[in-house]
Write a structure and sequence with these properties.
Layout lengths: L22 H4 L7 E5 L2 E7 L5 E6 L18 E7 L6 E7 L5 E4 L15 E2 L11 H8 L9 E5 L1 H4 L11 H15 L3 E4 L3 E2 L12 E5 L6 H13 L3 E6 L25 H4 E2 L4 E2 L6 H17 L4 E4 L2 H5 L21 H17 L4 E4 L21 E3 L1 H12 L2 H4 L4 H4 L10 E5 L11 H4 L4 H17 L3 E5 L24 H19 L13 E8 L4 E7 L6 E7 L5 E8 L4 E7 L15 E3 L10 E7 L3 E8 L7 E4 L2 E4 L9
Parallel strand pairs: 8-9, 8-19, 9-12, 12-15, 15-16, 16-17, 17-18, 18-19
Antiparallel strand pairs: 1-2, 2-4, 3-5, 5-6, 5-7, 10-11, 13-14, 20-21, 21-22, 22-27, 23-26, 24-25, 24-27, 28-29
């Protein structure tokens, strides 16, 4: 066993049940509840405080109620050791309610489940996988991810790639190698997996979880998923997991009415039912429930070495009136709409994860103006490392959908973010939510003819990398899919055979490498020192320009975007210092599918102040394009040619970084 392998059961065969007044036990329920192999059999434990009686039904007893009884304890945990049960045995808990009904329930803390549509849990050990990711874990613990480049590739494992040999899915191990190769080639630093926690319905995309301690069996065994994470770490790639503590499905085999009562959920539908998703809401005011959830989060970091947890639908947890009309919700004890118990839960979750797993990040999908989501708990915040900037996503996409002729009247859609950009540690998300439910793909959402759609998409994606904030892109974005995401099919990889689509991917490769290699583009992602406007009010030309800087402002990159199809020649911009400004990126490069209009490799500054800066540069801004410049030592004499009164380097616009 490696030093990073955590034993999941006690050394003896006696039952240990947490009393919920022991903090260490209460956040590691996976070591005590569920099914654990012991000498001669399996130790079972399940929380069902209102049950009249509980027995295990399984392959070993013909699925017969009453043959393998569990004993009750004062804290409502039923437990017992059943001899002769072997790994791989399918089982459920048969629970007799106080009214006499018999329920058959999946184990809430099972480590493995049957392949849907079957719903039994499976006895399984997680203790035999040998990890070899010590180097990555040490690197992770020593990294300040707010200062480091974080570029996430959001993946739905079931539809990223699919086999063509008759199988529905690839195995976790196959996916590990193929995905790692692709992510490294494309330059992303992390993968963010849409939920792999077990779920019964493919169409929920994993967001209606029934197995909070089990990777879905669709792609293999728990050890296969451990292999997936381990391989990613060996290749230097971080792994984030979507986690859904906000609601759970009503499936009869799951948590709903688990012991015949509303155990995990509220009994009052004004608190316990989610109208948007036809799901049930956890009762965060019940300590056993919050410890169950926090144990789940801890489990993925502990047993599977997950590097980050993205918490789904945080806004629905924070507000009692979320998606409800007047009279459909119950105010808190002070008459407000804030869910005080959920707030306490989220703070507890973030405090524990950050304390026990240095370098693990937590990310909130939170769409409101709730203050301090990514600020420390000790200052009154919720304690997340980062928060999705849904405002940036909505404003930017609304702008990019507009016909360029109208954009000059809506430039504030792009500049408004400057008011709040550093109020949180933001992630700029272009996620799966933007390419489903009739919204079309990002490429299809762009305005104009085919050429303009591709150019607009290049502007959108390069603008995302240039703006302050960590990055997230959903799979398929990087090849410019024409169609919406379909969870029942793989990405349209055939598009890579078309140069226009492959040009988008080449650009993403270069943007990722530029983002990672240039501290000015990532060191100041979440602080005001990392950003400075140059031009935000040029409505006539519909041009925006700004500086990206390191926190100490010693390194600077100048970014300018032309949001119309007309080139802007002889455009004057203020520059921070005199010298030669190399064009380090141009989204109109032919290499990316553009027209190749640029600045012949770079320009020299002029001693004319502009935009509050001591010098200026005069450039060509290609149509529907983003260009970036960096002050560097001037080129050698052998590569100079005379261009009027100024010297420049004649470099084809395609010769951006590759």
């Amino acid at each position: 066993m490696s030093k990073h392998t955590t034993p999941l059961s006690t050394t003896d065969s006696s039952i240990r049940t947490t009393t919920f007044d022991q903090a260490a036990d209460a956040t590691t329920l996976y070591r005590y509840w569920g099914a654990h192999l012991v000498e001669g059999g399996v130790r079972f434990a399940v929380w069902a405080p209102n049950a009249r009686e509980v027995s295990v039904i399984s392959d070993g007893n013909g699925w017969t109620f009453g043959r393998d009884w569990l004993n009750s304890s004062d804290n409502g945990v039923w437990h017992g050791v059943i001899k002769g049960v072997l790994p791989g045995t399918r089982y459920k808990y048969a629970i007799r309610t106080q009214s006499g009904n018999l329920l058959e329930k999946t184990d809430p803390v099972a480590f493995y489940h049957e392949m849907r549509p079957q719903t039994a849990s499976i006895v399984w050990s997680l203790r035999d996988f040998q990890w070899s990711d010590d180097e990555w874990l040490q690197h992770r613990s020593q990294t300040d991810w707010l200062k480091a480049p974080v570029s996430m590739y959001e993946v739905h494992l079931g539809s990223w790639k699919r086999p063509h040999d008759g199988r529905t899915y690839f195995n976790y191990r196959e996916l590990a190698h193929a995905l790692a190769d692709y992510v490294l080639e494309t330059g992303y630093t992390h993968v963010q997996l849409m939920p792999v926690t077990e779920h019964p319905f493919d169409g929920s995309w994993g967001y209606q979880t029934t197995g909070y301690f089990a990777p879905t069996s669709r792609f293999g065994s728990p050890q296969d998923f451990q292999y997936f994470v381990n391989h990613m770490h060996q290749r230097g790639i971080g792994v984030l997991l979507d986690w859904v503590p906000g609601h759970f499905p009503t499936d009869t085999h799951g948590l709903a009415m688990f012991d015949g009562t509303c155990l995990y959920e509220h009994s009052d539908p004004r608190l316990g039912y989610h109208p948007d998703w036809n799901t049930l809401i956890f009762n965060y005011g019940r300590r056993e429930v919050t410890e169950f959830l926090i144990s789940s989060a801890r489990f993925w970091c502990d047993v599977y070495h997950i590097d980050g947890i993205r918490v789904d639908a945080v806004a629905s947890m924070l507000y009692l009136d979320y998606s409800r009309d007047s009279g459909q919700w119950i105010p808190n004890q002070y008459g407000g709409r804030e869910n005080l118990h959920a707030i306490d839960f989220l703070r507890h979750f973030n405090t524990l994860i950050h304390a026990e797993f240095p370098g693990v990040i937590t990310v909130a999908e939170e769409s409101t103006a709730w203050p301090g989501v990514s600020r420390p708990c000790y200052t009154g915040g919720l304690g997340f490392t980062m928060k999705w900037d849904m405002g940036w996503m909505n404003d930017t996409l609304r702008f990019m959908r507009r016909d360029p002729i109208h954009r000059q009247y809506h430039l504030n859609d792009l500049t408004f973010r400057g008011i709040y950009a550093f109020s949180e540690n933001f992630v700029l998300p272009l996620s799966h939510d933007e390419v489903v439910h009739g919204k079309q793909s990002l490429l299809s959402q762009m305005s104009g003819d085919t050429w303009q759609k591709f150019a607009n998409l290049r502007v959108l994606l390069s603008g995302q990398f240039a703006a302050p904030g960590k990055k997230l892109q959903f799979m398929g974005t990087e090849i410019g899919q024409w169609t919406e995401w379909n969870h029942d099919a793989e990405i349209d990889w055939i598009l890579r055979t078309f140069d226009t689509h492959e040009g988008i991917r080449r650009m993403i490769c270069d943007l990722n490498r530029l983002y990672c290699s240039e501290p000015a583009l990532h060191d100041g992602d979440v602080v005001a020192e990392g950003f400075q406007w140059l031009v935000g009010d040029d409505h006539t030309n519909c041009v925006v320009a700004f500086l990206r800087q390191t926190r100490n402002r010693r390194e600077t990159i100048l970014v300018v975007s032309n949001l119309t199809p007309a080139p802007r020649d002889n455009y004057c911009l203020g520059a921070p210092c005199a010298g030669y400004y190399k064009e380090i990126f141009n989204s109109d490069a032919e290499w990316y599918g553009g027209a190749g209009l640029g600045n012949q490799g770079g320009v020299y500054s002029k001693n004319n102040p502009a935009h509050g800066k001591p010098v200026s540069i005069v450039i060509t801004v290609p149509p529907l394009a983003t260009v970036m410049f960096k002050a560097v030592p001037p080129p050698t004499d052998s590569t100079k040619v005379s261009l009027g009164n100024e010297d420049a380097v004649r470099v084809d616009a395609r010769k951006t970084i590759r």
